[in-house]
Amino acid sequence: MSQRLPDASEESLNIVRRRIMAITWVVTSIHGLFGAIGAAYALGDDRRSDQIILLVVSVPLAMIIYGVTVVILDKPPISWRTTPWLVLLLSFCVAGFVWVL
Known about the structure:
Keywords: Membrane, Transmembrane, Transmembrane helix. The chain crosses the membrane at residues 20-40, 52-73, 85-100. The protein is an all-alpha fold. Helix content is 80%, strand content 0%. The protein has helices at residues 7-43, 48-73, 83-100. α1 runs parallel beside α3 (83-100) and α2 (48-73) runs antiparallel to α3 (83-100).
């Protein structure tokens, strides 16, 4: 015999599941963003075009991380709670441009 949770408990459990999945996604995927920026730095000045390509790729990567996270959390893409996270991710990309170039 299975026990069903009340609707409020079920919804609370789903919120917790979404948050855990979002945290796992962000922590895992942010390594890819930092990896692209770090790889651009590691290439050295003699491969400037490859550095620029990696830095340009980091911007869509940051936007994908943001978009998937917003979808997982079921939040609106543009709001006062979610937009600062996009700004933070893009600031990593800008810092990468300043650091490498």
